[in-house]
Design brief:
Elements lengths: L2 H13 L2 H8 L3 H15 L4 E4 L2 E4 L1 H29 L3 E7 L10 H9 L3 E7 L2 H9 L5 E5 L7 E15 L8 E2 L9 E5 L3 H10 L5 E6 L2 H9 L4 E5 H7 L3 E5 L5 E9 L6 H9 L1
Parallel strand pairs: 3-4, 3-5, 7-11, 8-9, 8-10
Antiparallel strand pairs: 1-2, 5-12, 6-10, 6-11, 6-12
Protein name: LysR family transcriptional regulator
Family: Belongs to the LysR transcriptional regulatory family.
Keywords: DNA-binding, Transcription, Transcription regulation
């Protein structure tokens, strides 16, 4: 039994005549009759009664018709879905995201992707940059959204967003609403988002400043919350400050305090069509 025989059977059952069924299928009558006989032989039952009016389904034929329709429909569905998966129009993508990308991801492109391909679904995993890379290496996720700096070994990446660091404070610490020189932070209680400790220390050391880290944490949202409560000045990426901060956001004029968001994936991992669509989207 094969799909071609099932399709032939269904057309004959619909047309109730070998002649018209053969025309509809664009084949000659003898091959069609032969395929039907082979199908009946394999099933072990007569499917049609031949009479003066044409072809009538037997009781066995009526029962078999229901199954044949389901099998053919399922075959068409499977073929369609496989094609969609192959072209990246269907499937699930596992993405690891860091908390500090909330002001940037998801973006308008994500919304457009879902509009064009409504059968695509996302499984989101949250961690810091190091956790995301570890999940990527372990095969838990397909793609990761991380912040620089990070170890690029074994990874492909695409830089898609850069932004400055800003200060979040609920006090009027800075007259002009901006920090034009890092010396303005000297002696101030700083809430350190540990992710950028090395960058901050390098800059402070270069300018001969010993910073006072009043609070140290591993999440930009935590740093912002503590700053909102008046426990210090949080130094965080601009986008997450704009998303979560209730206090004043103060710009910082310092060229080296810039962070980049990258989308990353394993070099040894085959990029699926759906992964490729999302990478291109960035």
């Amino acid at each position: 039994m094969n799909l071609k025989q099932l399709k032939y059977f269904l057309v004959v059952a619909e047309e109730r005549q070998i002649t018209s069924a053969a025309k509809k299928l664009f084949i000659a009558q003898p091959p069609l009759s032969y395929q039907l006989k082979q199908l009946e032989k394999e099933i072990g039952a007569q499917l049609f009664i031949r009479n003066a009016h044409g072809m009538e389904l037997t009781e066995e034929g009526k029962a078999f018709q229901k199954y044949a329709e389901k099998i053919v429909d399922l075959s068409l569905t499977a073929t369609s879905q496989i094609r969609q998966i192959k072209t990246g129009e269907l499937g699930k993508i596992r993405i690891g995201v860091i908390s500090s990308c909330g002001g940037v991801v998801p973006n308008k492109q994500f919304k457009k992707l879902i509009e064009y391909y409504p059968n695509v679904s996302f499984e989101i995993h949250e961690a810091n940059t190091f956790g995301i890379i570890e999940q990527l290496q372990d095969g838990i996720i397909d793609l990761g959204i991380v912040r620089t700096p990070f170890n690029l070994e074994g990874l492909n990446f695409k830089d898609f967003h850069q932004e400055p660091m800003v200060a979040v404070t609920n006090n009027n610490d800075f007259d002009r609403g901006k920090i034009e020189h890092l010396s303005q932070l000297k002696g101030k209680p700083i809430i350190l988002y540990r992710r950028f400790q090395e960058i901050f220390n390098r800059s402070f050391r270069h300018q001969g400043i010993r910073p006072f880290y009043a609070v140290t944490c591993d999440d930009a949202r935590t740093a912002i919350h503590w700053a909102d409560e008046g426990l210090g000045i949080a130094l965080v990426p601009q986008s997450i400050a704009q998303t979560y901060a209730k206090s004043s956001i103060v710009s910082i004029k310092h060229a080296h305090w810039v962070t980049h968001l990258n989308i990353v994936w394993r070099k040894d991992r085959q990029v699926t069509p759906l992964m490729e669509k999302i990478i291109e989207m960035f």
